[in-house]
């Protein structure tokens, strides 16, 4: 998957908890990095990512940074570990980018499948 498709997976997970969806743009940076810029209502939050890394690493980096951008733009941390008030954390487990419970709880789900996991009550 390309960078835009990976960002779309994260945005789909985050939109399961809010109606807020920022505008996303991509700007080339030095040394092969790409700036991902999220904007809404005149405010923007950007960060660099290396699209040459493995898909799981790029997806994990995006899943780590985009929720932070949501906090900056909308004052909300997402996605939430089901049944708690804790924002999930992005991690790579067995080569797959997943949302995990930062408190060490058993819940996790693949990045891009948060809405499905919450609706079904299942976890990875």
List keywords for this structure.
6 strands, 3 helices, alpha+beta
Polypeptide structure, described:
- It is a single chain.
- By secondary structure, this protein is of the alpha+beta class.
- Helix content is 32%, strand content 27%.
- The chain has helices at 3-15, 55-74, 114-120, and strands at residues 23-28, 34-40, 43-49, 89-93, 96-100, 108-110.
- It has a 3-stranded antiparallel sheet, with helices on one face. A 3-stranded antiparallel sheet has the order 4-5-6.
- Strand 5 and strand 6 (108-110) form a beta hairpin.
- The model has no long low-confidence stretch (mean pLDDT 88).
Shape: globular
Fraction of residues in β-strands? 25-35%
**Head-to-tail CA distance between termini:** 21 Å
Q: Find the count of extended strands (DSSP E, 2+ residues).
A: 6
- Main sheet overview: 3 strands, antiparallel
Derived structural class: alpha+beta
What helical percentage do the residues reach? Answer: 25-40%
Report a brief summary of the structure.
With 124 residues, the chain is of the alpha+beta class. Helices cover 32% and strands 27% of the residues.
How do the strands and helices of this protein lay out in sequence?
Blueprint: H1 3-15, E1 23-28, E2 34-40, E3 43-49, H2 55-74, E4 89-93, E5 96-100, E6 108-110, H3 114-120
Antiparallel strand pairs: 1-2, 2-3, 4-5, 5-6
Helix pairs in contact: 1-2
């Amino acid at each position: 998957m390309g960078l835009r498709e990976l960002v779309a997976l994260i945005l789909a997970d985050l939109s399961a908890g809010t109606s807020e969806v920022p505008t996303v743009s991509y700007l080339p940076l030095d040394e092969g990095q790409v700036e991902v810029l999220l904007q809404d209502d005149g405010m923007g939050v950007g960060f660099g990512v290396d699209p040459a890394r493995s898909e799981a690493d790029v997806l994990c980096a995006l899943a780590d940074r985009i929720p932070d951008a949501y906090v900056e733009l909308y004052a909300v941390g997402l996605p939430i570990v089901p049944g708690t008030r804790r924002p999930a954390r992005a991690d790579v487990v067995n080569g797959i980018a997943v949302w995990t419970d930062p408190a060490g709880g058993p819940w996790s789900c693949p990045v891009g499948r948060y809405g499905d996991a919450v609706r079904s009550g299942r976890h990875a």
